[in-house]
Design a protein that fits this description.
- It is a single chain.
- The chain is of the alpha+beta class and 250 residues long.
- The protein has a single domain (7-239), classed as Alpha-D-Glucose-1,6-Bisphosphate, Chain A, domain 4.
- It contains six helices and nine strands.
- It has a nine-stranded mixed sheet with strand order 1-9-2-8-7-6-5-4-3.
- The protein starts with 9 loop residues before the first helix and ends in an 11-residue tail after the last helix.
- 36% of the residues are buried.
Amino acid sequence: MRNLGSHVPQWATILFRWSLGMVLVSWRYLWQIMPLHRTVQVGDVDDLPPPLPGHCIDECSQPLERGAGPLFHRVFAVCIDGTTMTAQELISTLAADLNRAVPSEVTSVDKDSDGLAVGDELTVRMPGPWDGPVRVVDRTETSFRLATLLNHMEAGQIEFRAWPRGSSLQFEIEAWARPGSPMVNLLYTHLRLAKEIQLNMWVRFCQGAAEVAGGRVRGGVTINTRVVEESQWRRPAAQDRAPARAGLIR
């Protein structure tokens, strides 16, 4: 009997697996009551990510230049009231086990070490044909930043951070990334499947971080997106200009 699966086009398999992940995420999304405050703006060269440390770059790195399509600079932010943790304790707890905050029906994180140190590598398991290998490129008491490696569905960086906000905590996820290949660009930018899965995943992570901190989200999740076309950030002027590192997108 012939193996019909071998004749299924790769794009059809990819679309099916992403659609399945989308159904799982959308089901949770439809039933959540968390307010989402979304804005989308045209970005510029100030939306480029921080430079990668030289000692963290090798043949396995997948920086922005290796991707396809536009750059998406996104910040997901929540204010956490009633927390029982400090910013340092929250980031330390998340660094020890990211699975405590990720939506388990969409993704999981594999890592070898107990904490996160610069140079450590992790793999984010996704509901599609691409797993997400990343490397820690920056670590402070209140933040850690990851950069994508080869075969990740994106090319870029992502940072998780927290700091005191009066008697509350501010928690943010800031991502500077573009699709890692033309296929992902089709699903992310044009069909929007991957983009919505990612958005809902990080919204859920923000909610999970509030639960880990022993508090509650005040006023919902703010999602600021700035989109930069490749023709903008690849201009020569962009190479001579230091990227901004603002906490929230202006």
